[in-house]
Amino acid sequence: MKKKIAILMFSVLGVGSLTSCVDLDSDKYFDDRRTLESVFADKNQTLEWLAYAYSFLKNENVDVGSKGAGFYYSFDDCMYYGDRDSKLFGDNKDDVRVSYNSYRMGLYDENYDNNAWASCYKGIYQASVFIHNVDKNKDMSELEKLDYKGQARFVRAYYYWLLLRKYGPVPIVPDEGIDYTQTYEEMAIARSTYEEVVEHIASEMVQAAKEIQYTKRDQENIARPTKGACLATRALAYIYAASPLANGQLANGQHDPSKVDASIAEDFKNKNGEYLLSKEYDESKWARAAAACKDVMELGAYELYHAPFSTSDTDISPATIVPPADGNFSEKNWPDGWKDIDPQKSYANIFNGNVYPQDNPELIFSRINNMLRNNNGSIESFVLHEMPVSCGGWNTHGLTQKMVDAYYMNDGTDVPGKDSELNGGDGSERVQGWTTRQNYKDYPPLKANVSLQYANREPRFYASVAFSGSVWECAGDPTTSNRNRQIFYYRGGGDGYINAFSYLRTGIGVRKWYNPSDYISGSHSMDNISAKAETAIRYADILLMYAEALNELDGTHNVESWDGSTTYTISRDVNEIKKGIQPIRIRAGVPDYSDATYNDKNALREKIKRERMIEFLGEGKRFFDLRRWMDAPIEESQQIYGLNVFMTSSAKDDFMRVIPTTNLQQTFSEKMYFWPVTHDELKRNNKLVQSPGWTNYD
Length: 698
Hints:
Layout: H1 26-39, H2 43-54, E1 79-81, H3 86-89, H4 100-104, H5 115-133, H6 142-167, H7 184-187, H8 194-211, H9 227-242, H10 264-267, H11 284-298, H12 343-348, E2 363-365, H13 379-386, E3 397-399, H14 401-406, H15 459-464, E4 465-466, E5 470-472, E6 485-487, E7 509-510, E8 537-538, H16 539-551, E9 557-560, E10 567-570, H17 574-588, H18 595-598, H19 601-615, H20 622-628, H21 632-635, E11 641-643, H22 652-655, E12 658-660, H23 679-684
Antiparallel strand pairs: 1-3, 2-8, 4-7, 5-6, 9-10, 11-12
Helix pairs in contact: 2-5, 2-6, 5-6, 6-8, 6-9, 8-9, 9-11, 11-16, 16-17, 16-19
């Protein structure tokens, strides 16, 4: 006998991958159930099911990627990609899925870059099936099954984390399963509140941390989650829940109400009137976030990666550039100072492939390189797009002047002229003049004919910024003449403006992720670009989040640790704040903040935000930071500035003049806080509301 079974096709319940029809023969349905039994009776098939649950963590769901659909979040007010822009290439090149300006101007709609919703919920479904069936396997030990169950629980909660930061409050799928005999209306699920989603992620991650048997994985299993990955994701969810967007809006932190509108909390609510973002400020959420960060710190499993001090001087590995003495960090060895480390290599090696993931004590979670050589999404593609034309690259990924100005001088002061075009800074003027063949060795690592605006900057600057006149080593290239090229971005010079495609819109490039051995042998081939491990979550993030959360406290809070073994006393303790900040500053080779800064909550908040801006350049953090802080309406509405790239080398002083970069645009409106839901999802789930600012289609 056949029975009509209503199948809920909208991907909120993750079943879209199971069937393409709405009518199933009930006998066939139960045959499928018997097949499920046989899958989990076989160890290899069981692990294949888990692998499939993992499989949705790639493409649009990676944390760090190059340009194109799904990777917009790596390009904020600091970094841009200049190719594939409809304003430059005409009507037949106006695909907003890959257009920087379309993303930054909010010109996309709900039909673009929305695969994350479906893929995350499919992954959630697959992981749930695994969790409820793995115990049936008789070929695994109990500890094996427990660890695998923890992995599935982690990945399921991580999908919710990815959904939360992109779409905000989302529906939570019932863990007990789905009754497919119900109608669409009966199976519809409303969005849970932001806090409910966060608590779901947090509780699931705690359970996963109890089930997972490892705090460190071997080389073969390095991409699998550990206890630390579970607790770190929990900390991320909690810091977002504590931040202004989800915690009282303008009552949380400092905002100019004439420039920042808090109406999103009023606008974002379910059809029954339930508000999805908290309208009331709760300081205890910051304490909860700080305690979650401390849980990761107390594991004792992580530390910041650092490279040793070196006197050896080669093209591919130059001698350590010693930061100026500060009377503190400069006198001490790691971890209390930088005397015996190389700050520039300590930062650069995290990203350039010189350190294998299993040897990086800072890496908490990574997909490693499961998108290796992907034309758009991979980190290798990121490198291909940042490398100069003269080296075989696309020469289209670059930095804004705002980002360049964010980096400190090597003595910890601001660069002269910082943000002067944005009505910021201290009123000082930008440095004039150039290095010469006679004096360039006084300004390591600069070569001759480089603007002195790039002299004496902090080590992270030289590890990340490809300024005009910087050297691209390409040391692996078998052709000697292709190595150690000094690249300039003047108009008509090969790597400067020639046409509307392969040139840096601001005249400032990026070299983060590039390895000195990388080179391009064929037509934009990535074959000789070394594999880089994705830095989805690293310990530096935990440290800075710890400092950020503590800084926001006025009172004292008692918070239980994740496993109930102890209770933390959490308050705005400056010595504890320093535990989060000082390791970052030491590794970076820059002096500590002053006592006055540490004692001023508002001043320290701005310093921490700037530290995150520098430390996590290109890692997909700032895009979401600006939103959770509610700083996006100001920071992402500012004019983008860069150099005067239409000047030739004969007018190099004019080239260094900072001007508006008119072909890079950005703005911000309420609808850009969260990504829209597709029309199809709204039709299939009649309890689902659209993200604020987008069309509801009611």
